[in-house]
Amino acid sequence: MINKRIQIFRLPMSLWAILYLVTSALNVNSIEQKVFQFHHHNNEQMYDTMLEVHEKCPSITSIYRLSENSVEGRPLLVIVFSVHPTEHKPMDPEFKYIANMHGNEVLGRELLLKLADHLCEEYKAGNEEIVKLITKTRIHLMPSMNPDGWQRSTDDGGSNYLIGRDNADGVDLNRNFPDLDRIVFDNEAYYNDVNNHLMQMVDHLSQPIQPETKAVMQMIMSIPFVASANLHGGDLVANYPYDASRYGNVQGEYATSPDDNTFKWLALSYADYHADMANPNRMPCRGGDKNFGKEGGITNGAKWYSVRGGMQDFNYLSSNDFEITLELGCDKYTKQSELEKEWNRNKNALINLIWQSHIGIKGFVQDAITLKPLANAFIKVVNVTNGIMSPILHDVTSVQDGDYYRLLTNGDYQVTASLDGYLSSTKLVTVENKHHNEAKIMNFTLQPIILPSNYNKEGKRIAFSNLIAAADLPVF
Questions:
Q1: Residue 370 burial by CB count (10 A; 0-12/13-18/19+): exposed, middle or buried?
Q2: How far apart are CA 157 and CA 151, in angstroms?
């Protein structure tokens, strides 16, 4: 079981960093004069580019190293953009992109390096939209989850559909996460409505967890991400949960999650802003392939094909994070001559998806008497649009400072905050997501259950669930 308090280590001063700083000292203007070049950055060039961006924009960036290296010892690095880059600030949602999970799918790696450079340069230039985005959001960019696979694919010429896909141990990292879909589908079958934060229910693993997977799991469990995407290649579509079939590997089965509407919103937020993803007139990648453009450029994962142990569903079922998977093009190893064109095709979509971490509602959960923040309070939601009550059976929780974030599409909702030892609080809210704006704020103060109301005449404590029922408060 993963410790939720596991620490993510800050970037150490490794040899490549020392060499970079020494050369920079010899030419103090070298960083400012350096212009991003579109090419396939090898692993050391990738690290250097991240450091260069940090040196250009030190006040809004930080770099950290995940707790595990790759199988072959390469560091797994993340660059962060925020006006508070080294720590979570309450009410500012956390967003992440992870690329190059399959080592031979390389476009996402180059897009994230360019995105880092773009965010830095546009912030410095005073671009109002970028300044607002970085001021209101904490953005994590991980260009490569599988640098070993990238090296193998590149050494082979980048032309093989499989070489470099796996990590150095020959494991597909997107099949290596704990299979939380199995748990949630079993819960459904036995009328157990537990549909969130399922890591405590993992009782066995189907295969050993790889170091790259473990590192990202610890990242997910340590940082309160709200939304994210992982970047792949081989087709052109935005894919959303569930990725796994409920009833085995059933071809074409649509596996609906409780947040199906919200996931469609997220997927369309990318597809609609991409140059071609949602174009119904584009050609499919290969003969016999589905033309996802005719479906708006999006697909439910299991309807396409079933994946067990994927990172996308793990995020949704282990944490508060809503993740989608982006297939960025027909070619896995994109030609170097195509990289700049692909950046221009994806730039607006990459930025627009980050903004979606601000849809829905957010706020604080506090103790009504002491006003201290309450972590781990459950936020339960019922969609009451048009007077029809439809519970969304997937709770999120407040985090360490009592702040919570609940992604929702436009509509009317009944929202309940609850925590053991407190009376629940329920409010109604109308969500109207405005373009590139912050979520609506809805705060909760919970009344603690104190003596004598929570003890019976014999001095025995009444069960919390019984108190809630006696108070005639809604429980979903």
A1: exposed
A2: 10
Query: Would residue 188 show up in a list of annotated catalytic residues for this protein?
Result: no
Given pLDDT bands bounded at 50, 70 and 90, which one contains residue 77?
A: very high
* Residue 344: CB atoms within 10 Å: 9
Q: In whole angstroms, what is the distance from residue 3 CA to residue 368 CA?
A: 30
Q: How many Å apart are CA 234 and CA 306, to the nearest integer?
A: 16
What pLDDT does 248 receive? 78
How many Cβ atoms from other residues are within 10 Å of residue 88's Cβ?
A: 18
26 backbone dihedrals φ, ψ, rounded to 5°: -75, -20
Interval 303-347: pLDDT, tens: 999 999 999 999 999 999 999 999 999 999 999 999 999 999 999
SS in 3 state form for 460-475?
A: CECCHHHHHHHCCCCC
* Mode of pairing for the β-strands spanning 444-446 and 411-418: unpaired
pTM: 0.89
Contact between 265 and 247 (Cβ < 8 Å)? no
Bridging pattern class, strands 403-406 and 361-367: antiparallel
**Facing residues of 363 across strands?**
404
Q: Which of 327, 338, 340, 432 is catalytic?
A: 327
Residues 6 or more apart whose CB falls under 8 angstroms from that of 182 comprise 244, 308
Is 78:143 a contact under the CB 8 Å cutoff? no
Mark 29-55 as b/e (b = at least 16 C-beta within 10 Å): eeeeeeebebebbebeebbbbbbbbbb
Question: Does 475 score more than 80 pLDDT?
Answer: no
CA distance 127 to 122: 5
Residue 160 is predicted with a pLDDT of: 87
- The predicted-structure confidence for 396-446, as pLDDT tens digits, reads as follows 999 999 999 999 999 999 999 999 999 999 999 999 999 999 999 999 999
